[in-house]
Amino acid sequence: MEPIRIGVLGLGTVGAGTVNVLRRNAGEIARRAGRGIEVTRAAVRDPGRPRDCDLAGLDLTGDAGAVVDDPSIDVIVELIGGTSAARDLVMRAIAQGKHVVTANKALIALHGNEVFTAARAAGAIIAFEASVAGAIPVIKSLREGLAGNRIRSLAGIINGTSNFILTAMQSGGQPFDEVLAEAQALGYAEADPTFDIEGIDAAHKLTILASIAFGHPLQFDRVHVEGLGAVEPADISYADQLGYRIKQLGLARRTDRGIEMRVHPTMVPKQRLLASVDGVMNAVLIEGDAAGPIVCHGAGAGAEPTASSVVADLVDVVRTLTTDPDQRVPHLAFQPDRITDVPVLAMEEVESAYYLRMLAEDRPGVLAELASILGGLDISIEAVVQREPPRGVSQVHLIMLTHRVRESRMNTAVAGIEASSCIEGPVTRIRVEHFEAD
Length: 438
What we know:
By secondary structure, this protein is of the alpha/beta class. It folds into three domains: about 5-135 and about 305-340, NAD(P)-binding Rossmann-like Domain (Rossmann fold, 3-Layer(aba) Sandwich), CATH 3.40.50.720; about 140-300, 2-Layer Sandwich (Dihydrodipicolinate Reductase, domain 2), CATH 3.30.360.10; about 350-430, Alpha-Beta Plaits (2-Layer Sandwich), CATH 3.30.70. It is built from 14 helices and 17 strands. Strands 7, 8, 9, 10, 11, 12, 13, 14, 15, 16 and 17 form an eleven-stranded mixed β-sheet that branches. The longest helix is centred in the N-terminal third of the chain and has 18 residues, at about 105-120. The mean pLDDT is about 95.
């Protein structure tokens, strides 16, 4: 049987890794797929630049459209990133009935509904395992392995840059800006790290996971997103003393009132599995009603880890080329006519426990005043930490942990605390999740 011919758009880190894996493991891949998979053409910005892969027999061009339009190409692998050009090229491939494999989480999160609709009409497959968590087969786990479950929740460390930064702050006590500069020097963070440190990259990935978990349309604009900028070394230290680690999590949860989708720094008890995931590693905790809690853990980025998922998608595409399109695994796990637009809760409606850090006057009655503000809103305090100030200093850091409460009530409480004459400056708050089931 003739091999399947692949056209790759982009030979950067992941593209080069994909070529290397396909060529190094060609025999094993063919045994799994039932026929060979060969990269024959690739589109790059500069065809003359050296690449970290074997270019022998590979036709390089600066025209991505020419690769998409090449009638000899069976499958397009889109690895250029971004949303504008990538969307146009993917839609162009679909219009020709070509299948697409992509690692582009922004494309899927922002345009996936449109792309999947077009693909279904054309009988094309869109495979996107590599768009979330690198080498970890979390999409396949949700879409296939846990198909018999009603998914209750998922929580993930799904951005390696933010996890590296928080891990380094934890181990070295350095401020955020210093650790970010270190991450950039090591190549873990981009020159413009906004998407990573502001939680946007994680929100793209959470959008995809939540849709597959709960069977609703992709809704990136409904994800609540907060970055790492407010987390200080003092918070890392206090969290440690209280038995927690701070992680940037993407969380999605099914409730009686709707779906939660949020990305923000989160305090996690040290004994929980997610708390032990350090450096640039990723992990996703999924809780199904039948399976219980499952943790998928591994490399969340990198040339060959991400290429591992790209190639796995290619094998799946080849295996299903002759399958009736109506019998294929649906893009978002649920049959297209069963995707339901369930309510997504505004952040004010979400419930969480909280860590509060404030600069308070060191005098009698302060704690009672703050407790009164919280108690008046029916917010229960779990723990209080107050360090003795240095001699001659009249203010002290006061730390409170609360039990679970709706965000809207905590907003009111924080406003009341900040208005108090005994508090100087803003209150730092970090949500706390216990993940009792893991």
